Amino acid sequence: xxxxxxxxxxxxxxxxxYDRTQVLHxxxxxxxxxxxxxxxxxxxxxxxxxxxIIAGFEAPDSGMVTIGDRDMVGVAPEHRxxxxxxxxxxxxxxxxxxxxIGFPLRMRGMPKARQRTRxxxxxxxxxxxxxxxxxxxxxxxxQQQRVAIARAIVFEPDILLMDEPLGALDRRLRxxxxxxxxxxxxxxxxxxxxxxxxxxxxxxxxxxIAVFNRxxxxxxxxxxxxxxxxxxxxxxxxxGDSLHVxxxxxxxxxxxxxxxxxxxxxxxxxxxxxRLLWRCDEIEIAExxxxxxxxxxxxxxxATVLSVAYAGTALRLKVQLASGEIGTVAAPEGGRAETGxxxxxxxxxxxxxxxxxxxxxxxxx
Amino acid sequence: xIPIVVLLLAPSxxxxxxSVSQRQVLAWPPRGFTLDWYFSLFASGRxxxxxxxxxxxxxxxxxxxxxxxxxxxxxxxLRSFRFKDVVLAIAVVPLVIPTVVLAIGMYKVYVWLxxxxxxxxxAAHAMIGVPLVVVxxxxxxxxxxxxxxxxxxxLGAGPIRTFFLVILPGVRSGVxxxxxxxxxxxxxxxxxxxxxxxxxxxxxxxxxxxxxxQHVDPTVAALASVLFILSMAMMAGLAMASRRAR
Amino acid sequence: xxxxxxxxxxxxPLLAALAILFFLPAAVIIANSVTEPPGxxxxxxxxxxxxxxxxxxxMNTVKIAIIVSIFTGVIGYFYAYAMYRAGPALRAFxxxxxxxxxxxxxxxxxxxxxxxxxxxxxxxxxxxxxxVVDHPIGMMRTxxxxxxxxxxxxxxxxxxxAYTSMRRFDSNLIAAARSLGASPRRAFWQVxxxxxxxxxxxxxxxxxxxxxxxxxxxxxxxxxxxxxxAVLITAQITxxxxxxxxxxxxxxxTAAVLLMLAVGWNALKKIFxx
Lengths: 365, 246, 274
Prior knowledge:
The complex is a heterotrimer of chains A (365), B (246) and C (274).
Chain A: E1 9-18, E2 21-31, E3 36-40, H1 47-55, E4 62-67, E5 70-71, E6 82-85, H2 97-107, H3 112-125, H4 141-153, E7 159-163, H5 171-188, E8 191-196, H6 199-205, E9 208-213, E10 216-221, H7 223-228, H8 233-239, E11 242-250, E12 253-256, E13 259-262, E14 272-279, E15 284-286, E16 293-295, E17 298-310, E18 314-321, E19 326-332, E20 342-348, E21 353-356
Parallel strand pairs in A: 3-8, 3-9, 6-7, 7-8
Antiparallel strand pairs in A: 1-2, 1-4, 4-5, 9-10, 11-12, 11-14, 12-13, 14-21, 15-20, 16-17, 17-18, 17-20, 18-19
Chain B: H1 2-19, H2 36-43, H3 45-78, H4 84-92, H5 99-113, H6 117-143, H7 146-154, H8 159-170, H9 172-188, H10 191-196, H11 204-214, H12 218-245
Chain C: H1 12-35, H2 43-50, H3 52-85, H4 88-103, H5 106-117, H6 122-129, H7 143-168, H8 172-179, H9 184-212, H10 216-221, H11 229-240, H12 243-272
């Protein structure tokens, strides 16, 4: 089973408000044909609203939705030919597995015999051959979600939308299903828009990620780009642990914690107050120092360990700098760090991401 | 607890033994055993006629109540719209307005509309039964996952097919219990029926009411026992039907 | 999805039917209070409110409603609590006992009470057999007969809402209260009762409102001095042909019912309409 031709999605200027709260502030997003695009963000960031607008469950107050080259404004959901997989499976409880998967085929008036073949093909695709006569309540959560996926692709939709489809599953099963969905994507070549608030899931599955915050797209990019080169502090914080410090930039001079260093590559477009950010695995732990010191493009800073957490393969240290700034640093297992201890942090200026110094913008509401 | 249980069950438990007593009056303790009162009850064409009328009225009013109440209950349970609370209050008010007030009002208006006997009773009882259908359907609809409706739409079913293929099966248990309640409330109703029926179209409660007020003999106890057993059957029927619907 | 106009299309047929077949009759009878005889204005209300007969019947109605509400409230809450605490088998039995009266015809039950309470009924037989009394005590055609009949008939309406609110109660809260040092009695009164009193309130409102309109039971079990307004209204129509007075009385009773319904609306909504 290979779908005819994957379609692209273009969202432009989407605005949506419910009563007095504006949930989307002019969202633009392009999803290429055949791409696996994740929409990542905290709850209330607008990602699910976008999904509902693409599916046609909600109408935007203004803005355009184009799928392939078809303008979708005013098209009812049943005429959009879009597959949707929901968080809580949403199988029709009074229909068998085959009844559920056959539902979209029945709606399209497909002859019974062809329906049967297609249902069986779809069941094989999600590794549930022969399950057609079961009722949904006889299946485990993982099996129900596979049936829901089969139901959403059996009618060869133009695109597939998935709304936190693995949110209700436990961790182990979730990881297996991530692999399967990824494999399915490669096999079918279908365009997938995948909504999640789990950054690891987005990083491991997607071709590209759009990070949402408060009804806006903060950054769009490959998993590597959004993780290593976050465009904003929000994206940096949402995608993983890091340490960021306040700094002042002028041309190639940078002033951090009362010491001045020279940057090898002057930052384009930044001057004045900025924040320098390192991912927690980009920081080296050194011997304690009395005061900040610069040598060879690296700054060593004194810090106090606030807490130590064991994270499986490494330790996660919560540290506080003399300036009061708090961040997270990864340390090898078996290190000497202990709560209340003093350590030095060696920060490589060449690896720092320079971000505008905005007030921290939170996400949840 | 035992006194309360006795209080709850007393009327049902006392009437059965008296209906098979050989005494000519309804006096305790019962004496002997006879089914004569049942024979005379079932031999009476009058009671059979009224039984048929009762079934006709209850069935017709239940059908009307379901046709009106299910779409309303589904809408109230799933949609939000302006004045929803007002609509809800309007829909349940027939349950509590004193039947006497209604009965005389209906007597005036229905005669003018040409509604009496079967038509009039069915219409009137449907108004009393419809709130029960609305309430049970609405609470079933509230428990329906609204995402199922979105799923159905995204899979290609329009609003009408979604209603019949997804929503209606989803609220089935509520509709069934509402229909049973509506049937029972019509089956039991005396006052409106008394006003709206001609002497040739009496329902069982009307007939029984007349009988009690004229001449009580153990035949009435036999009838009361039959009605009691029928209500138990209805209660059991609902329990079975709703178990199957689930 | 769909235009706003059609959002509530499902309630339209119901509203149309209710308007013609329910509200029009109710409105017509109430309108009689100011149109019968023509040009009556508020004279019917003045007449009815000044009428000692109406006052007596109205007092009966309120008296019966209050007594019945108090007893069904206390007994119903207690019964619901017993159901809540009982094991599954006993609970099923108690639930069936509570539901059975609801399904049994009101007429049959009122009639059965007349058989139970009459001089040759089971209660007098038991009292005489036990030697408590020599002669039957007259219970029929008394206020006692009316209230006990109505209490039995209306008891399910307090048991079921109270039980509904108890089933929704999170039993961990009692454990939490106990762990914080509350005695079982204090845990009940300070945690359990406040969280379940909405069920009690809903039941009380329902019973009070329903008893205001009771007709069958008082007629069968009560004496001439125990009759409620509902009986007086029918008498105005069937023997006096005084539609104006009947309309005024109907208006007063209906207003009382709607007022009580408005008072208890939130509690009723929480219990029955969720």
